[in-house]
Hints:
Elements: E1 12-17, H1 23-36, H2 41-62, E2 70-77, E3 81-88, H3 115-123, E4 126-132, E5 140-148
Antiparallel strand pairs: 1-2, 2-3, 3-5, 4-5
Amino acid sequence: MSPLPASSPAPFRAVHRSRIAEFDGLVRALGAWCRAAHVPPATVSRLVLVLDELFTNIVVHGYLEAADGEIVVEAHTHDARVEVTLTDHAPAFNPLLVPKPDTSLPLEARPLGGLGLLFVRSTADELRYQLLDAGTPQPRNWLQFGLNFDTAGPGTS
């Protein structure tokens, strides 16, 4: 992997309310930042898919669609890799502890849920979670996913 150009922009940071409608603006801003950071288009496509699943899960399942929640999205690049972090104050939830669904079962025998997280786990090159400020009135979920740059062009991931 080659290092990033010296002209990489400062890390990305955006604060959004817990509303699905906020996602499009987030993607536009993050996409512009990714272009400036020289993140390959195929990697940006994977990033948006993973971010969509995680952002939606925070809004729908974490904040239960209450529009006053806050989601902080940060991103940075290093060594041909982009890392995106989502931080929220929704109830503690570690997605790494969710059992992987049994995809060998027939559809009618499968319990609902879990496929989105399975997608995230299989798409991200790395996924990390921490509960920050545990034991305080305002604990935070901290979830980070990393994607190595796709350098061989579209359709290679």
